[in-house]
Design a protein that fits this description.
Helix content of chain A: over 70%
Number of strands of chain A: 0
Radius of gyration of chain A: 21 Å
Structural class of chain A: mainly alpha
Oligomer: heterodimer
Number of strands of chain B: 0
Shape of chain A: flat
CATH architecture of one domain in chain B: Orthogonal Bundle
Largest sheet of chain A: none
Distance between the termini of chain A: 48 Å
Structural class of chain B: mainly alpha
Chain lengths: 218, 198
């Protein structure tokens, strides 16, 4: 019972760490969803130059560790005279990094639509925007939901990397503080932190389990 | 980097092509302007001075060999950690999947619970705590050992989940046929299920 006691006395701090992680996840999730969708639109647009640009963007952030992105933002941008708090840089880095994966998921959703759908729309005389609104987007959403779930799951866990830079007061910083600065026993803190992340990601795992059973039924 | 497979657009007419060229030029100009401003401001701050780049590019600089040696060491360490953890996590994944498939009700539930919690935990946290928990129980190794162990546990759990999905997708008739042939559960797993799941 000893180790439970250690966690229970810090329940308030665990809760605030949890909320900060959640807050970071939501902000970075919305931001990367917007940016990633823009990149995906550039990627599937009929403009070759934009296709290339979006491709390089995606490849750049997919092949670069998040830590390196954060280092560049936090220590490179101030050199160019752009100053912001480390938390802002951290969330911006998370958005930039995740946008590459979001754009891939969104693109995959559109590419999974059978070619016949567009040909049928054309045969019915629908124009581009009507085709998009009534035919493409609904089907694309269905296709992009499973990859997006896993992208955002990884992103929620990547907040720990931002936290390791000592910003945000989220769960990783809390773990660091409790075990290193305050010398608490390591195992109970680890169990508490791991369970907090598990609770945070529970909705995502329920969604992906639902999607999986739906996939198997088909 | 495959070609686009989306066929959402008709061949454009000359008017549209003209418009497209305008949009392209404007977009690229915007991008070039942003990049230009960034480079200009970095240049103003003296980030492109020969003095700052000489340790990296000038062989006669006193730090040149040292820096490249450091980069080489880092690359080598990253590479060996990657190779070791890829191989080990593959083995761990098969191990987890085998326990879930072959174990009793409780054993497989506990193992699945463990892999689920590990999958929901950030990798950085696992590395951090591996390096802190193991020494407390007298299992101190090198930093490389902690890193590889943490990577193995984390990626093993993720791959085990993928493998479980693969096992689920193998038609039920396969394991029933194996049972009808009198194969043991172990042989069924290693000879029938695993080759089809991976």
């Amino acid at each position: 019972m000893d180790f439970l006691y250690a966690d229970l006395t810090d329940l308030g701090r665990f809760a605030s760490g949890f909320l900060n992680t959640l807050w970071m996840t939501v902000i970075a999730g919305v931001g990367s969803m917007i940016l990633g969708t823009i990149v995906a639109i550039l990627r599937i647009s009929p403009v070759p130059a934009f296709n290339k640009l979006a491709l390089y963007w995606t490849e750049l952030f997919k092949n670069c560790p998040l830590t390196v992105v954060l280092f560049f933002l936090a220590f490179g941008f101030p050199e160019a005279g752009f100053n912001a708090s480390y938390l802002t840089f951290g969330i911006a880095g998370l958005i930039l990094y995740t946008s590459a994966y979001v754009s891939e998921a969104v693109r995959a959703g559109f590419e999974a639509i059978p070619k016949g759908q567009f040909e049928a729309a054309k045969a019915l005389g629908l124009n581009f925007s009507t085709t998009m609104r009534h035919i493409a987007i609904a089907q694309a959403l269905k296709g992009m939901l499973p990859p997006l779930t896993s992208v955002f799951t990884s992103m929620a866990k990547d907040t720990a990397i931002v936290g390791s830079f000592g910003v945000g007061d989220e769960l990783f910083s809390l773990a660091n503080q409790l075990t290193v600065s305050e010398g608490r026993p390591v195992v109970p803190v680890f169990i508490g932190i791991a369970c907090s992340y598990y609770v945070l990601l529970l909705p995502a795992s329920i969604i992906s389990a639902r999607l999986e059973t739906r996939e198997l039924k088909r | 980097m495959s070609e686009r497979t989306v066929h959402m657009f008709d061949e454009l007419n000359p008017d549209e092509k003209h418009y497209l060229r305008l949009v392209t030029t404007a977009g690229l100009a915007l991008f070039a302007a942003a990049a230009g401003i960034m480079i200009y401001r970095l240049w103003l701050a003296g980030q492109f001075s020969a003095q700052k780049w000489s340790p990296l590019l000038n062989p006669s600089d006193k730090n040149f060999t040292l820096i490249w040696k450091f980069l080489g060491t880092g690359l080598q360490a990253t590479f060996s950690a990657a190779v070791a953890s890829i191989i080990l996590s593959g083995i761990a994944a098969v191990g987890f999947a085998a326990i879930v498939y072959l174990g009793g009700n409780v054993t497989s539930k506990v193992t699945r619970g463990f892999t689920n919690v590990v999958r929901a935990t950030p990798l950085l946290l696992i590395i951090f705590f591996t390096a802190r928990i193991l020494p407390e129980y007298g299992m101190a190794t090198t930093e490389f050992g902690y890193l590889v162990l943490a990577l193995t546990i984390f990626n093993g759990a993720i791959m085990a989940e993928a493998l479980r999905g693969g096992l689920k997708a193998v038609p039920a008739g396969q394991s029933e046929a194996a049972a009808a042939l009198g194969l043991s559960r172990w042989t069924t797993f290693t000879r029938v299920m695993l080759p089809q799941a991976s």
